[in-house]
Amino acid sequence: MYHAGIASIPESTAPNLRNRSFHINAELTIPASGDCDGVIVCHGGHAGGYALYLKGRRLHYVYNFLGSFSTVISASEELPDGDVLVRAVFNATGRFRGDMNLYYGDVPMGSGSLPITVPLTYGVDPFSVGYQRMGAIHTDLPGKFEMPEGVLHRVIIDAIGRAYRDPEGEARAALAKQ
Asked: Which residues pair with 99 in a beta bridge?
């Protein structure tokens, strides 16, 4: 469980969502008026990563593949006012790809495919909750894109199954960060 403001969790201790199915659940309170835009959770930066965020009173998920292209999946409707559980459910359909589904509670709101995902690392940009710590993962997320106070209560992340691992590739990535 994570709360808003948690930041700079390095990849070695962050939730490992690479190459496996996962669920991200976030408990929110959406104000009847005013701003509720901001990052719910993100990991990575301009060179690759993902973010679950609110913009225009809708839930969005962006996946940035190594800075070369991004896939954005958006909810079809605005969030209701008041307390709401939003969910992002990723189902791996093979190595380095899968389908993302967005929900408000148990109601499906959006879906799409991620044709390719990062096999090893998101680089040096850390995992954070409630804002993005370093470089923007996508142009939709300017600056820190911090969630307004009182909107985000907690985030629960469940990684499902075993992640695909490439020990030799991981060793090369670790050496490159030195």
From this structure: 91, 113
Average pLDDT over residues 133-148: 86
What are the residue boundaries of the structural domains of the chain, listed by start?
21-176
Looking at residue 103, its amino acid is Y
Q: Alpha-carbon distance 147 to 129, whole Å?
A: 9
The conformation of residue 147, written as its DSSP 8-state character, comes to P
Burial 100-133 (b: 16+ CB within 10 A, else e): bbbbbeeeebbeeebebbbbbbbbebbbbbbbbb
Edge-to-edge strand list for the sheet holding 97-104:
107-114, 97-104, 82-94, 21-30, 152-160
Express as a percent the part of the chain with pLDDT over 90: 53
- This prediction has a pTM of 0.89
CATH architecture for segment(s) 21-176: Sandwich (2.60)
**Runs of H (alpha helix) within the chain:** 167-176
